Structure formats: structure tokens, C-alpha cells
Amino acid sequence: MIGLSTYAFFWQHSELAGEQPGLRRLDAFDMLRRTHELGVPLFQICDYAPIEEFSAAELARLAGLAEELDIVLEVGTKGISPDHLRRYLGIAQALGAPLLRSMLYSPASRPTLVQAEQQLGEVLGAFDDAGVTLALETYEQVSSTALVGLVEQLAHPRLGICLDPANTVAALENPVDVIDRCAPYTANVHVKDFAFTRRGGWVGFTLEGAALGTGLLDFEHLMKTVRPEERGINLVIEHWLPLGDSLEETIRLENDWNTHNLDYLRSNHVDVN
Fold it and tell me: Which of 159, 177, 264, 270 has the smallest number of CB atoms closer than 10 Å to its CB?
């Protein structure tokens, strides 16, 4: 199944959009409706701070809208402290979300691998009882080898990896190697293309997003190795889209990328339903 993330609407729900005359900042309900308008059956509410302040009634209203639009919800956060994960597990349950994506580190916590194993061990039983999968994302602050080792050590059916090959480039990990290493444990995929461009004056490079099929992501290898359709693994579209000359132009490009990336996945025979 193909999905869109809040990161696919990053500039449209940013604080900048709320401060710009003539622009309206999107909220979770707006993004859910946009997802429906694009014919996409999955929306991942990822690193979206306002969700933490939603009342039970607001969560129920969001879940009701998703059901009305026939859209599956997923949730994403950062950090693995037991109290935090239990809080987000409750949010996932309220939204009927079968998957929670997280990262080992949060702005307030950087556990060692030993501490991470202990913390995750405290809560995985609750995830099992709730029928929710916890997917830990690959990113540059923790090597994919260490992440795989942690998942293998815990060996729990409700613990997997959220595979994002682009994130690990900053740690000089080859994306193809990361795909190969993480594929057996992958429970969710963040799909975004990326490329290096020369900085002004040709001093150094900038790593930033690209429309699918125009950058360095080996999409064919990703699909062949992970086999998401066969294994029931969702592909969630994200962007690394830098702010351009104006917010209006950046938002226009953000929407263009959403359309392009969906067309790219459809043309590559990915099931979007």
C-alpha cells in the first residue's frame, strides 16, 4: 500500500505557512483530506507535534474522518523511553493505526544500545497486546548495523525497521548496503529520492531531496530486495524539499512532487490501493 506522510506536506503544515498572508496552514484533518483527493489509501502522521495535544474527542474525530475516507492511519514519533512509547501507543490505538514508527534518539534522550534494549523490552508486550507494530527508522545517528543488531537481539514479532536509505547517507553508509542489511526486518518504508548538488562557489556539496526517479535512490533494488507488495509492507512518500525563493513556490513544488511521485510509483507497477 502506498501512503503519504506529513513530511509530504511539510511546508504546507509548517509554522511559516501560518504566518504567510494569503496562505492557510494545513492541519491533520486537511492533510488527510488532501491524501484522499490524491487517491491515496494511507496517511502517516509522523513527527507531528500537535497530535500530542489532541483530546480523546479530537482523536476520535480524526479516526472517524479516516474511516469515512477509507484511509488507513499510521503514526510516527521520536524516542523510545517507555512512557513516551506507551503514550504514542495509546494515540495509535485511538486512531486505529497498526504501526508506530520511531527512532532510538529523541531531542531529550540518547540511550546506549544496552539501554535501548532494556527500554524496548519494557513495552513490546504492550505493543503485542494492542496488535501494533513498532518500526525503528534507519538514520545517520545510529548505524544500520547497530539497529539490525538491536532488532535481532530482541527478536520480537512486533518490532521491525522503518527503512529509509536516504537518511544513512550522512553517515557514509551506502544506501544499497543498508537496503540489503535491513530488508529482512523491514516493516515500513519511507520513499524519498535524494541527490548531491555542488554548493555555491563549488565548495562542498548539499544533500537534498529530489523527485522520485531523478536522484540516487536505487528504487528497483529497493523493490526487488524488500518485496513490499508480497510482504504487505507499506511505502510512505516523504520529501527533503528545501525552502525556495518563496514559500508559495516551495508549496507548489511540494504538491508537484506528490503528484509526480505517485505517478512514478504507479508507472513502476506498485499497488497504490
Answer: 177
Return the DSSP state at 192.
-
Domain 2-267 has CATH 3.20.20.150: yes
Domain ranges of the chain: 2-267
Task: Dig out the grid coordinates for 48 from the structure.
Answer: 507531528
All three cell numbers of 31, joined, read 492533510
CA distance 99 to 97: 6
26-44 pLDDT, tens digit per residue, is 999 999 999 999 999 999 9
Contact criterion met (CB below 8 Å) for 175 and 169: yes
Q: List pLDDT tens digits, range 221-239.
A: 999 999 999 999 999 999 9
User: Residues of 254-267 as b/e, b for ≥16 C-beta within 10 angstroms?
Assistant: bbebbeebbebbee
pLDDT in tens, 52-102: 999 999 999 999 999 999 999 999 999 999 999 999 999 999 999 999 999
Three-state DSSP string of 152-185: HHHCCCCEEEEECHHHHHHHCCCHHHHHHHHHHH
Contact 99, 188 (CB under 8 A): yes
Q: Per the confidence metrics, is the pTM higher than 0.85?
A: yes
Q: Which amino acid is it at 37?
A: E
Give 48-90 as a DSSP string.
-GGGGG--HHHHHHHHHHHHHHT-EEEEE-S---HHHHHHHHH
Query: Count of CB atoms within 10 A of residue 15's CB?
Result: 8
Q: Which amino acid is at 246?
A: S
Angle between the N-to-C axes of helices 219-226 and 175-182, in degrees from 0 to 180, rounded to the nearest 10: 10
